[in-house]
Automatic annotation (TrEMBL):
GO terms for MF: DNA binding; DNA-binding transcription factor activity
A Pfam family of this chain: cNMP_binding
Transcription as UniProt keyword: yes
PROSITE patterns in the record: CNMP_BINDING_3 (PS50042), HTH_CRP_1 (PS00042), HTH_CRP_2 (PS51063)
Organism in which the protein naturally occurs: Salipaludibacillus agaradhaerens (Bacillus agaradhaerens)
CDD domains for this protein: CAP_ED, HTH_CRP
UniProt keywords, alphabetically: Activator, DNA-binding, Transcription, Transcription regulation
Phosphoprotein is among the record's keywords: no
Cited InterPro entries: cNMP-bd_dom, cNMP-bd_dom_sf, Env_Response_Regulators, HTH_CRP, RmlC-like_jellyroll, Tscrpt_reg_HTH_Crp-type_CS, WH-like_DNA-bd_sf, WH_DNA-bd_sf
The name this protein goes by in its record: Crp/Fnr family transcriptional regulator
Length: 238
């Protein structure tokens, strides 16, 4: 049976395919589970499988030669993992770490390639989804490269508010605990740099922090710095 409907923050690969293809996808995959903090695959490994997330969340990261970890993106329900290896045998381009206990459908690369070749609707949905995912990644790199470390922090705060924001009397509460180290990993900065940037924002009354929960009091300030009104990208989440 098709997976139960669920409201998502953005269109997933699963949302883009017709019900008959949804049933086929579920039928063809092999269910596997992955515990929190487990690694599904490492950057640089030869790809053997492509994964479809039924439940849970997976964080994509890259690690520098010096061991510095950089957070790329969060994958969640109905997203694919390892999709860049389809039709080209590219090695995995990132580490895939489970951040919330996950239930996955596993496909061999050849198996999923055959499905895409045999079913035009599935192939079109895959290309549409891949284009959207690329848009999300390009938007993140835009903010990191062109807005500097401070702008990158502003960008992450805006993205977090879009994904986890809850309106409160003082502004927007990011309804998820987030540490300075996590912010540092998202923008490729040191924790000390993040501390300084956040302290300035607190002093300016742009944000406040209470037990690792951040409330944004002046979202337009952050958006103006990032020139959000001129941003060509539609997606703005982590």
């Amino acid at each position: 049976m098709p997976i139960a409907d669920k409201k998502l923050d953005r269109l997933s690969f699963y949302d883009l395919i017709p019900e008959s293809m949804q049933e086929l996808l579920v039928k063809e995959g092999t269910e596997v589970s992955a515990n929190k903090e487990s690694i599904i695959f490492y950057e640089g490994e030869v790809p053997k499988h492509i994964y479809f997330i039924l439940e849970g969340q997976v964080r994509l990261t890259k690690t520098s030669a010096e061991g510095k970890v950089f957070f790329l993106q969060k994958k969640k329900q109905y997203d694919l993992l390892g999709e860049l290896s389809i039709f080209n045998s590219l090695k995995y381009q990132y580490n895939a770490e489970v951040t919330q206990g996950a239930l996955l459908l596993r496909f061999t690369c050849n198996q999923l390639e055959r499905l895409l070749i045999a079913h035009e609707e599935l192939a079109i949905a895959f290309m549409k989804w891949l284009s959207k995912e690329n848009q999300v990644m390009m938007a993140q790199f835009r903010d990191l490269v062109f807005c500097g470390k401070q702008g990158a922090v502003f960008s992450i705060l805006v993205r977090l508010s879009n994904e986890y924001g809850q309106p409160v009397s003082q502004g927007i509460l990011i309804n998820r605990k987030i540490t300075n180290q996590e912010l540092a990993n998202y923008v490729g900065a040191t924790r000390e740099s993040i501390n300084r940037i956040l302290k300035r924002l607190i002093k300016q009354k742009i944000i406040s922090v209470n037990t690792k929960y951040i409330t944004i009091h002046d979202l337009p300030f952050l958006q103006a710095h990032l020139r959000c009104s001129h941003c060509p990208f539609e997606e703005c989440t982590i």
